[in-house]
Amino acid sequence: MPQQRPPFGVLLANLGTPQAPTASAVRRYLAEFLWDKRVVDAPRPLWWLILNGIILRTRPGRVAKAYASVWTDEGSPLMSISRQQQQALSSALKAEFGCDIPVALAMTYGEPSMEQAGRELRQAGVENMLVLPLYPQYSASTTAAVFDRLAKGLKACPHLPQMRFVNEYHLHPQYIKALADSVREYRAEHGSGDKLLMSFHGIPERYERQGDPYPSQCRATAVAVAAELGLADDQWLCSFQSRFGREEWVKPYTDATLEEWGKAGVKRVDVISPAFSADCLETLEELDVENREHFQHHGGGDYHYIPCLNVRADHIALMTALVKDHTQGW
Ligand SMILES: C=CC1=C(C)c2cc3[nH]c(cc4nc(cc5[nH]c(cc1n2)c(C)c5CCC(=O)O)C(CCC(=O)O)=C4C)c(C)c3C=C
Ligand SMILES: [Fe+2]
Ligand SMILES: [Fe+2]
């Protein structure tokens, strides 16, 4: 009996993370990540010299310590949450479509690779593939990098599946509502801060000038969440974190904002990070630890970090809706 083919398969994509919280594993990860021209577009071979001569000699040790502080029994938080999302989405799609829909996980950098995920879907008989990068806001540095890496991974594949690609979902009503509900539920249990800071991962200002829509999509997400929550203008702000390198990044900066609010005597701030679909180093360490210390060092009061959407039921329902919307006719 020939096995029945699934109507389609889903390739869930995210950034990737080191294999271990050690300097050598972080060096391997950063070497691949920071060599991607979509991430750092500095002219070669000068960038090769800076990356290999300075950054990969100095950064991995410090960053490995930060990873070690958030590492779990299931590994890197980003990997363990991504695996849980993969399983939860797979169950939700089975319930929605009434049959097994293969869901593979792939990372742009490191493992599981695009090649591995592609092979897994092919072996499951997938002929139609939906690529769902878990980046709500489109950026060349993330979403387009998924596309590039997937295309590279499929070079050896003689018969490509039919493909569709989700570019972004920064204003999807279920995304906005899930973010707002995560704040509402948190505040119902822990009380409300004077301010809600929506801190997004940044990119260089120059990338925005060159046409990357990411910062404007982040601002639009923040406006929509504030509207959904009925916040007044002085009750929220959109800021950008995780600066890397010497040039100016999009502003306002998260750390500078928290410093200003601390000095102004803000008694309590609540912080969410809507660009991250899963908690990771940048939220659990930079936002929940470093920026908390920064705010309080400058005179700020209570600091509440509200987790990413991770495996919340409404987040999995959003992914299911994205899959349904983009697989019409398959
Ligand atoms: C959410 C979207 C992201 C955008 C946009 C983004 C752009 C971007 N990032 C760097 C440099 C680094 N980012 C690092 C970690 C990191 N970045 C994202 C997401 C986005 N990056 C995530 C989910 C993570 C965490 C990964 C994890 O393992 O938990 C790092 C590594 C850590 C460090 O060394 O500080 C770097 C470096 C650039 C240059 C950039 C845009 C040009
Ligand atoms: Fe990043
Ligand atoms: Fe960071």
From TrEMBL:
Give the chief site where it resides: cytoplasm
Q: What is its EC number?
A: 4.98.1.1
Q: Which UniProt keywords apply?
A: Cytoplasm, Heme biosynthesis, Iron, Lyase, Metal-binding, Porphyrin biosynthesis
Q: Extract the GO molecular function terms from the UniProt entry.
A: lyase activity
Q: What InterPro entries does the record point to? A: Ferrochelatase, Ferrochelatase_AS, Ferrochelatase_C, Ferrochelatase_N
The answer to keyword Iron applying to this record is yes
* Keyword Lyase found: yes
Per the UniProt record, one Pfam family is Ferrochelatase
Q: Where in the cell is it found?
A: Cytoplasm
| General function of this protein | Catalyzes the ferrous insertion into protoporphyrin IX.
Pathway, according to UniProt?
Answer: Porphyrin-containing compound metabolism; protoheme biosynthesis; protoheme from protoporphyrin-IX: step 1/1
Source organism lineage? Bacteria, Pseudomonadati, Pseudomonadota, Gammaproteobacteria, Oceanospirillales
Q: What residues bind Fe(2+), as annotated?
A: H201, E282
What does the similarity note say?
Answer: Belongs to the ferrochelatase family.
**PANTHER family in the record:** FERROCHELATASE, FERROCHELATASE, MITOCHONDRIAL
Q: Which reaction does it catalyse?
A: heme b + 2 H(+) = protoporphyrin IX + Fe(2+); Fe-coproporphyrin III + 2 H(+) = coproporphyrin III + Fe(2+)
* Top enzyme class: lyase
Q: Which CDD domains match?
A: Ferrochelatase_C, Ferrochelatase_N
Which parts of the chain span the membrane according to its record?
none
Q: What name is this protein filed under? A: Ferrochelatase
